[in-house]
Amino acid sequence: MRPNIDRFRKDMEALARIGRVPEGGVARFSLTPADLEGRELVIGIMKGLGLSVRVDAVGNIRGRRQGRDPTSPIVMMGSHIDSVPNGGDYDGPTGVMGPLEVVRTLNDKGIVTRHPIEVVVFTDEEGDRFKKGTLGSAIMAGHMSWDEVRGLKDADGISFEKALEAIDTTGTPGEVVLRKGEVKSFVELHVEQSARLEEKEMPIGIVEAITGSSHKRIRVFGKADHAGATPMDRRTDALVPAARMVQEIERIGRSDPAASLVSTVGYLDVKPGAMNIVPSLVTFTTDVRDTSPDNLAAAMKEIDEMIARVAGERGVEFEIEELEYTAAVALSPAIRSTIADACKKLDIEYMDTASRAVHDTSHMAHVTDAGMIFVPSVGGKSHSPDELTHWEDIRPGLEVLYEVTLALAGSDA
Ligand code: GLV
Ligand code: MN
Ligand code: MN
After folding, report:
1. 92 alpha carbon, closest ligand
2. At residue 1, does pLDDT exceed 90?
3. Protein residue closest via CA to atom 1 of ligand 1
């Protein structure tokens, strides 16, 4: 008896129906009604599998399957169910429904593991609501404090603390942080979100390292003026320098000799935003990533200096606000070899790879032995309604996760 792809698919499809948007994809921003409905679905599945469910003070859902030795460290697996705007069905849910299918298989076989197993759904991995991602895992790992996050506001001025009132939680924010020795290991099953596995026809990627990432918000201040009556030499247009900055940010990303740096402006807002007014304020975000911390730091510096230079040349004021920095991290050699051993046992080919996306594992890897298992993404597409991984391509991921769970949690069967 092995993990069953049809049961997994049923759970994935049930979640994918929640938060569908007419333009395509899903919108399940953290702690919004769609996310709440998704949480109810997952909690229902967890309870149906006999897990004891605890929702901590920041909304992380922890479903626990007791082990023979209840005091021994937890073998943890998990991911997220919140999405980006018009997000796909696989980024996150695969790493939640996958471990739940593993638990279902253990139940079917009557296996009692030595270590307790917990399946975790982390709060707000994507960060599109409060403009800070991996909230739940960062707090759990002690990388963000409650005081840093409680006042974060969404576009409607609702704070993270207020948004959490929509769900039933237990304990205090302080208790969210893992105690030393509480967790034995953490594994996240995820779609690759790049096309390397597909191109190399590899069923499994074992993640060696996760990229570092910097998110900033830039504001460029101009002066609103009549678009007809203000001569060209008497205006302070905020958009023209901002447009230069956007182009430079792309150029900096493209000019990395190692082709490992990526830089994106994914959000831009122009105020007052009228056809016949010279723009007075432009707000945009930067997303800059590299697996090399030194390259990332150099690029961040180059971008900050470029912004100051362009603003100076155009006589506009500017502000740079750091939203989030996630350090690049190497994943545990021990977990990587456990995953490799599972692949060998199952006769499934694998390759080592790096993750260009940030994950909850980015934080968990600092507090426990952590690993990631990738399955191929069609065309490498993600953060898009076109995101797709064929069910048959997830099957090896489930099977490997099952073997890894047995190896980590210990079983006599
Ligand atoms: C999370 O999906 C990220 O932006 O890498
Ligand atoms: Mn994800
Ligand atoms: Mn994502």
Report:
1. 2
2. no
3. 358
